[in-house]
Amino acid sequence: MFGIKITPLRQGAKAQIAILLVAMGIHASCSADGPPPAVSLVPVAKGLDHPWAVAFLPDGQFLVTERPGRMRVISPSGQVSPALMGMPTVAAGGQGGLLDVVVDTAFARNRRIFFCFSEPAAAGALGNSAAMARATLSADGRSLEDVKVIFSQRPKVSSSQHFGCRIVQAADGNLFLTLGERYQRRDDAQKLDNHHGKIVRVTPDGAVPADNPFRQQPGALPEIWSYGHRNPQGAALAPDGKLWMHEHGPQGGDEVNLPQPGRNYGWPVVTHGENYGGGKIGEGTAKAGMEPPLHYWVPSIAPSGMVFLTSSKYGDAWKGSLFIGSLKFGTLHRLQVGQNKVLREEKLLQGNGERLRDVRQGPDGLLYLLTDSPQGQLLRLQPSS
Known about the structure:
Elements: E1 7-8, E2 18-21, E3 26-29, E4 39-48, E5 51-56, E6 62-66, E7 70-74, E8 98-103, H1 107-110, E9 112-120, E10 128-137, E11 144-152, E12 164-169, E13 175-179, E14 198-202, E15 224-227, E16 231-237, E17 243-248, E18 254-257, E19 295-297, E20 303-308, E21 322-326, E22 332-338, E23 341-347, E24 356-361, E25 367-371, E26 376-383
Antiparallel strand pairs: 1-23, 2-3, 4-26, 5-6, 6-7, 8-9, 9-10, 10-11, 12-13, 13-14, 14-15, 16-17, 17-18, 18-19, 20-21, 21-22, 22-23, 24-25, 25-26
């Protein structure tokens, strides 16, 4: 059983009022904005093997990836399908595997999905990389058809870490993909001749949009949108259509950023973190020509999925907030934002050792969470009233 505890990190002058949520044994405390909504966590499906991402089908079903390389359909009643057929070979291991999945905004017409995975090198070659593929979900929902890799990170390296691999489809149909710097190649994040430590932007067919910032720059890979990132595993569109993302810092220094075209976000030259075991990284926390984070965490929370809540299902206080899960603490963080700034943060969820891997808003306006374990769950955050 989960306990939810809402704890403002930046307190106002109002006193805290404890509220007992009897249905789930959940405890909450009110913020400076007034009491938080009463909520409970409702299991939708169980027994998932390290689930990484959830997407929503128009008929009320869920599409879920499992990191070992399986994609499944979950019915509204929680029945989990066999693994879908047609999945390409996945280099599962470490942080790699089958990772993000999103449903095309035109899915009702084309049944198309996009997914991200760690792609092995060709036969006889070494290494792996993040890759993004498109596919058609069969009419019976049992297999993937017409699978095609539309983007493959270059170069491939022998590493099982820092794939990044979150996908966001913008209103114009183009796709953003976050890419890690593969850990031992961190200096690549400052170079434009590779895809390590970058956000890239491509069309649904994998072509380079005409207005990408480095399309005409000699020596730069034209898919690059922004650079200087470490291991970005969360991304979401704000209600105004802007892309927000977060990235894992080293030991401390997880960041929330608003990636602008052509901008440099600093890693590994500037960071609020330090080397594992201690020791300075780079030149400090700020440098001219490098974008500072909108928000950062020290110590790290190991952020995961993220989403902007656009519904009023939890009351007006939460509408418009950015929700981010934590792998390290099992907490759910609500960031109140305004004018492209983070104004306030609250910790909402205190799990019992459960790593939160993904956070999404469903078509019903409710928040859905995935827990990352060999017996992972799909959970719904249900308003109690």
